[in-house]
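[job 0412] stage=complex_fold ligand=S-adenosylmethionine status=START
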Amino acid sequence: MLRRHLAGRGVRDERVMDAMAKVPREVFVPQSCRRLAYSDGPLPIGMGQTISQPYMVAWMAEALELAPGDRVLEVGTGSGYSAAVLGRLGGAVYTVERHASLARSARAVLMRLGYDNVHVRHGDGSLGWPEHAPFDAIMVSAGGPRVPAALRDQLNPGGRLVMPVGPAVGSQLLVRERRAPTGDFSREELGSVRFVPLVGEEGFQQPVE
Ligand code: SAM
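[job 0412] stage=complex_fold status=DONE, emitting structure tokens
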């Protein structure tokens, strides 16, 4: 997986490759999908959601330019897989999931694997996790119509945010925003992606169950 799907598609960061090598993806997927755990595709995890494609996790993690000790927010915990990868790259990771059952099972797997620097919360991550802000990096693992103002507010000066922006159905544009020390934001477009929708107050409208 590492050589073919990640290095072969341009992931260069050694720390990201090392983190991807160390997180056992098979533990984060349902039993019935285990033989596909190291194929480079999303897989179903219940509640109509998916564990992200390994290449996407590596690409987004690389784009976040994480340093050891960075405080990281992830929106869209899903299975907890990408949170585990972020937990190997940064310091404390705060990850929010809107489906209670997914948040519960991700928390259990992460605890079992010993990721005690990764904290999972059930709620609307489009509002961030203000109690633990500010963050050095924010990864949004679901596609929203725009970058939520709440997430921009919770980003440290010098911080990076990576998020798919676009329609709820079809493809989105992966963008990286940087907050300058002056507080201004700059944006880069990284490429086309396809994510499940960010559903919440600052995402697409539907109640959080
Ligand atoms: N990165 C995850 C993994 O490795 O398993 C997969 C993320 S999955 C593609 C997107 C997740 O975002 C889904 O679990 C979905 O329920 C969640 N989600 C969507 N809108 C959300 C919101 N407003 N707050 C928190 N989670 C949200």
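Residues 100-112 form the longest helix (13 residues).
[job 0412] exit 0
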